[in-house]
Amino acid sequence: MKAYRLEGGEEGGRARAGAKLSLVGREVPVPQPGRGDVLVRVEAVGVCHRELVELRGGHPAPFALPLIAGHEEWWNRWAKLPTETSQCGRVVAVASEYYGTTVDGSYAPYVRAKVKSLVPLPDAVSFVEGCFLMCTAGVALRGLRFHADLRPGERVLITGATGGVGIHAIQLAKRVFGAHVVALTSSEAKAAVLREYGADEVIVCSTKEQLQQFHHSVRPPVDVALECVGTPTLNSSIRSLRPNGRLVIIGNVTAGKETINPGLLILKELKIFGSSGASREDLAQVLAMAAERKLKPVVHKVLPLDLAHQAHHLLADKGVIGRVVLVPSHARTTTAKF
Q1: N or C terminus of the chain: which is more exposed, having fewer CB within 10 Å?
Q2: Tens digits of per-residue pLDDT, 217-259?
Q3: Fold of 2-134+279-334
Q4: 126-173, pLDDT tens digit by residue?
Q5: Predicted pLDDT at 75
Q6: Strands of 22-27's sheet, edge to edge?
Q7: Type and span of the H or E element at 208
Q8: Residues near 263 by Cβ (< 8 Å), separated by ≥ 6?
Q9: Model pTM greater than 0.70?
Q10: Looking at the domain 136-274, which fold is it?
Q11: What is the enclosing helix (H) or strand (E) of 24?
């Protein structure tokens, strides 16, 4: 099968810290399942900004190379165990394993998965719509509920609001939590889209200087900041919070570091959380919302898997709203209509 692997920057079979990697298409064997595994067919895979961070050398910890990329996927049709072949239906994997980082991911026609990680996909949600919901809406839901403890009527700031996490976080903050949403984006064209998805206020920052100073436009200060960008906006998000506010850091789109003023955290008695992944309960809730059309999975574009490089360029150019989705040649690409 043809798969797209992360290669280069190796030292002792592992990615060197800070080393830039390449995405290379290779013919590789179909993976063989072991104990507790199934072999499943990939129908669609979302393109996450984490792929770009890894390619640019921003991976926070060494991992084995070469490694098939991709971690947002829906699988279908059949599961091949070591001793039998059987139908397993439409399934997704919860992140009990770090696909595309510690084990081979889904930029491939087939992937090996743990049986315990598979979750059914509702019939009303297509593969293209559902493939990225754990890593976007599921992650946002966990951050807003488990860490931020967002309450009705509270003000929440969402940075990177047109990204995969951000645009679904807006919908959840409004429809699940009843919050007042302040969204941050990079252009007026994107601002109009964010208002359509439920943002009450939109702040446009088109320069680096504006990203570092947008807190002056957040009035009154917010109760919660959901940080989906990371280093470029972190300090301004902190300064946007009211005393006793909560900051939840979900994303970091660059490999850079940022200095935080401890005195500001102390003076305002702020709470800061890191948030990663989603639970089965989180995933089940966002899938149910999507099936009931209470949450709209935002698909920017669907491309063949062989155009993975083009998908990465689209993301790097900051023109994507929601998610770009890749589909192997055998996959169906229809999406439900809203």
Answers
A1: C
A2: 999 999 999 999 999 999 999 999 999 999 999 998 887 789 9
A3: Quinone Oxidoreductase; Chain A, domain 1 (3.90.180)
A4: 999 999 999 999 999 999 999 999 999 999 999 999 999 999 999 999
A5: 57
A6: 22-27, 2-7, 67-68
A7: helix 208-213
A8: none
A9: yes
A10: Quinone Oxidoreductase; Chain A, domain 1 (3.90.180)
A11: strand 22-27
